[in-house]
Write a structure and sequence with these properties.
This protein is of the alpha+beta class and about 150 residues long. It is built from five helices and six strands; from the N terminus they run H-H-E-H-H-E-E-E-E-H-E. The strands form two sheets. Strands 1-3-2 form a three-stranded antiparallel beta sheet. Helix 3 crosses helix 4. The longest helix has 17 residues. The chain is globular. About 20% of the residues are buried.
């Protein structure tokens, strides 16, 4: 996935994924509000990492009444439900992506390039930390910072 440029999924694929995600939210006993549907739709349209501000801009195109606080509340609820993960890619704002596409991030501290790598990258470290300390890591929450091949 190194250097991957996200491409928007076809509309029918996004619509099917939207229905699947909303069905899962309903199955968890949660309501599907206009704002919640709009946030999930915006995440699907982003097809990658999106900031809360970027999601708000997408949502407000069709729903200008949806405020930033509502976006954050929905992102928190979606994360609690396991639909969304947020990650810190260095010093900028958190980015959000759908949890069904979990991955780890490598961020170059010189040029800012973000490389997506499999979520299993730190599996041995996770296992060691759990066995030694009884601690369950969430390695996808933060990016691994270093230097890319070009900047090293």
């Amino acid at each position: 996935m190194a250097g991957r440029t996200p491409r928007a999924a076809p509309a029918e694929v996004r619509a099917r994924r939207l229905d699947e995600i909303l069905d899962g939210i309903r199955a968890a006993g949660e309501r599907i509000t206009v704002a919640r549907r709009a946030v999930v739709s915006a995440l699907l349209a982003a097809d990658g990492h999106a900031t809360a501000e970027g999601l708000q801009a997408r949502v407000q195109v069709a729903h200008p009444e949806v405020h930033m606080a509502t976006i954050y509340r929905n992102l928190e609820a979606l994360e609690r439900l396991g639909v969304v993960e947020h990650t810190h890619l260095g010093h900028g704002p958190a980015v959000y992506h759908l949890a069904d596409a979990l991955h780890q991030h490598l961020v170059c501290e010189v040029c800012g390039q973000v490389v997506e790598v499999p979520a299993t990258l730190l599996r041995e470290v996770e296992d060691d930390v759990r066995a030694t300390y009884g601690f369950v890591m969430r390695p996808g929450h933060f990016a691994l910072v270093g230097r890319c091949a070009r900047c090293a």
